[in-house]
Fold this sequence. Notes:
A: mainly alpha; two-stranded antiparallel ribbon; B: MetI-like fold; globular
Amino acid sequence: MNLRRFSLIAVPYFWLLGLFLVPFLIVFKISLSDIALSIPPYTPTLELSEGWAGFRDFLSQLDFENFEFLATDDLYWKSYLSSVQIAFISTFICLAIGFPIAYGMANAPKEWQPTLMLLVILPFWTSFLIRVYSLIGILSQEGMLNQFLMWIGLINEPLTILNTNIAVYIGIVYTYVPFMILPIYATLTKLDGSLLEAAEDLGCSRTEAFWRITIPLSKAGIIAGCFLVFIPALGEFVIPSLLGGSETLMIGKVLYEEFFANRDWPVAGAVAVILLLILIIPIVLYQRNEQRQLEAET
Amino acid sequence: MRRLTWFNATSLTLGFAFLYIPMIVVIIYSFNESRLVTVWGGFSTKWYGELLQNEAFLDAAWVTFKVGFFSSIIATILGTMGAYVLVRGGRFYGRTLFSGMIYAPLVMPEVITGLSLLLLFISIGLDRGLFTIILAHATFSMCYVSVVVSSRLVSFDRSVEEAALDLGCTPFEAFRLVTLPIIAPAVISGWLLALTLSLDDLVIASFVAGPSATTLPIKVFSSIRLGVSPEINALSTILIGLVTIGTIAASLTTKRAVMRRRREEQMAEQMT
């Protein structure tokens, strides 16, 4: 192996090793340590300087008490469950809103499509924080939405939407729906229109053709879109802390508070490790879907 | 075939209204005279003036700019190298681990990335500040650059590169004269993506930023927690405007490049 090839591989390799993998191993290690009232606020379990004796010590001190603590404390259980629930329901709403938009885009006149595409991408490039912020003014007690609903006479007094879970759902759907639209749109534009014509010639009604041809053929895009919404929504921190209230339990927020407000690093570490374990399932499924799509194209 | 049915027209109108009304409201209220954000008190640009006099915001914007500038350059270089290794690296020890490390940060929740980097910086005794934010941003955005660049590397015809090598180019010359111009659009969009991700990031930065360096998102976040304010509306309008101009310019440039290529191809066809 020559030197140039070695350095080409080594530089990004060691960068990621040092700044991605090693930090994560540190989190894992700290999650197995005990909390201490000092700085840093944990007792290190593994002392590398002590060599083999230190390693033996490490093994004997290794304990899962932080994980046991998570399992016994209601707060964490509820946060994980409600994160999964919020992410799941938001994904479903995103699909219900995103699919008709993607379908409308794919069936719009050809010369409109680049512009429509641009209109979906634009919010995606706009600051995430600003888009969440823009919802605060709409959803607040005296906000636009309440004023509108009272103006059309649907309600008589303002609803409390901000600082509830409903605001969190609206926030996630609003910020993540472009992730749902884009992959579905991509599969729908590839769809061969003559298949639909053939189906109609053979006596299918239009709705039937939609359910039996369009939906199955856009399945890969639907699945990709669902994972692209579900995975980041699960660990979301900004939306629950700005739009949610005290009742909103999401694990990203719990982790942040455990670390900064309670300064309990070992428990924060354990929370992170479990969040990652939960995420592995959808990530593996997503990768498999992408792989299958690639194979289908080649 | 491609007629706009009323169903499609409705879903498009409602969909885009949902995506855009909140942002348009923010833009309109940034020109509101009144400090009350829900009452219209007449047109005024005074909040822009106040924003430009707010030292804390200006300092934070400058920090954000520096972080974005340096981290996106590092990310582009490392990410392009990473893509090259992924697509052209051949077999080497730990290849699976390498591609795993490229893809994993894309799906990693930000709170975990931030937490783990902070714990790393503390355990090696690195002072938190500008430098640590740059390191953190470069790390997660290099993975995005790698993905963008590698999709371009996969799709282009390798024989052009081999021809350059046969004609006496050194591998580095072949990369600089042949490969780089071909993948340049992907490298540029990767760089833009890295820059946007860095300018936008709140969660990772708030973990790894020390008290000495506050980025704009951190500053905005802490003032949003206190409620809606006309200054933030003005700031949002400026940022939305910049992004809009940038996106439209980028799409026009690519459109023109595509048209030019098509014209050149037609000319080449006519000549043969």
